From TrEMBL:
This is Cytochrome P450. Residues 1-11 have a biased composition (Basic and acidic residues). Residues 1-23 are annotated as: Disordered. It comes from the Bacteria. It comes from Kitasatospora viridis. Belongs to the cytochrome P450 family. It holds the Pfam family p450. One of its GO terms (molecular function) is monooxygenase activity.
Length: 410
């Protein structure tokens, strides 16, 4: 028997989303209850009070993200957007390919995909290694304590994405500021709108310059490929470049800090990685699964009535498939709340999403994390937190979970 949005609702008020974590290393406790008792459930968004559906199981998440009857278009009325953007501003913001449906999404993804192939990303390993070594050299020269977020977690992915795109690294503080403003839930609409505008203007000027003076970089190659076989407009290349700038450092930076802290807090896991560097790829997959840092990137809206786990979600209703819940589903990951770097099924995680919108930069993220974790603990084997866990600040209500600072010493 199925139910709809108007049938068989629980008598209690739906919870507010996002939900609080009781422990920085654990998903919200409510997720386990939902998986067991109500895998498709109602919630209201804290940011605007809008209703949405939560899908909390692994199979449920895969079903939603693989269904062509759901849309990633954040401009649709029911979309569960978690940033307080006024409707009039939202409608003026160009869609990135992350928020596009077929066929537009396929066109842009096909243009970008060669830039993030495994072969091309593996070729970057020596340069990424140089960047990581240089940042650790600077940490060692400064001496502890240092903030790992400012000294390593943010600069490494920022330097890498700047080089990939052909962005002068001297400009990285500007786009880090814009990215932070865009994702900040605690600033005014005017401030967020200004950040969108300034970032768009910067990237537009950058793309325009490379149309006349190309270099050996991703933006220049996208321009050349599009000239050879025109499929997108100038504005589309601007949108793709802006997306890579914002997402190319924010998520990886948060995983660098969180993963470092987790390995420090699980010394037996760290010791295993230090003793056998061949475990690093598995450790990266397990850390990605363990933290699953965003439940926002997989937001969707139903285009038609669909049934998930016996519940009918009506056309026009928003859906949040929770990857931090799906990746702790014990039917797929036994003892899911335990960090186990030898976990055989870790790579089955959904931290990069699922389906046609699966993260295009996942090969780069994996390589960056492997190099950072491996190099950091090899070169500074005595690394340790400089403050108690209770003093650390985590991004509990941010769109992407992470840490504001991580003071470390050795």
């Amino acid at each position: 028997m199925t139910q709809t949005a108007d049938q068989d609702r629980p008598a209690t008020e739906p919870p507010a989303f996002p939900m609080p974590r009781a422990c920085p290393f654990s998903p919200p406790a409510r997720y386990a209850e939902l998986r067991a008792d109500e895998p498709v459930s109602r919630a209201v968004l804290k940011v605007n009070g809008k209703p949405t559906w939560l899908v909390s199981t692994y199979e449920g998440m895969k079903q939603v993200l693989g269904d062509s009857r759901v849309s990633a278009n954040l401009k649709l009325p029911g979309y569960p957007l978690q940033v307080p953007v006024p409707e009039e501003l939202l409608q003026t913001v160009p869609l990135t390919f992350l928020s596009m449906d077929q066929p537009e999404h396929t066109v842009q993804r096909r243009l970008l995909a060669p830039e993030f192939s495994l072969r091309r990303m593996r070729a970057l390993r020596p340069r990424i290694q140089q960047i990581v070594d240089a940042r650790i050299d600077a940490m060692l020269a400064e001496g502890g304590p240092v903030d790992l977020v400012a000294a390593l977690a943010l600069p490494v992915p920022s330097l890498v994405i700047c080089e990939l795109l052909g962005v002068p690294y001297a400009d990285h503080p500007r786009f880090e500021h814009w990215a932070g403003q865009i994702m900040n839930q605690d600033i005014s609409d005017a401030e967020r709108g200004l950040a969108h505008y300034e970032l768009d203007q910067y990237v537009d000027q950058l793309v325009t310059a490379k149309e006349t003076e190309p270099g050996d970089d991703m933006i220049s190659r996208l321009i050349a490929a599009n000239r050879a076989e025109p499929t997108v407009e100038h504005s589309d290349i601007v949108s793709m470049a802006r997306l890579m700038l914002v997402t190319g450092h924010e998520t990886t930076a948060n995983m660098i800090a969180l993963g470092t802290l987790a390995l420090l807090e699980y010394p037996e896991q760290l010791a295993a990685v230090q003793a056998d560097p061949e475990l690093l790829p598995k450790a990266v997959e397990e850390l990605l699964r363990f933290f699953s840092i965003s439940d926002a990137g997989t937001a969707r809206v139903a285009l038609e009535d669909i049934e998930v786990d016996g519940v009918v979600i009506k056309a026009g209703e928003g859906i949040l498939p929770l990857n931090n819940s799906a990746n702790h589903d014990s039917s797929v990951f036994p003892d899911p709340d335990t960090l186990d770097i030898r976990r055989a099924e870790a790579r089955s995680h959904l931290a990069f999403g699922y389906g046609i919108h699966q993260c295009i930069g996942q090969n780069l993220a994996r390589i960056e994390l492997e190099i950072v974790y491996g190099t950091l603990f090899r070169r500074i084997p005595g690394l340790k937190p400089a403050v108690p866990m209770s003093e650390l600040r985590f991004k509990d209500d941010a769109i992407v979970y992470g840490m504001y600072e991580l003071p470390v010493t050795w």
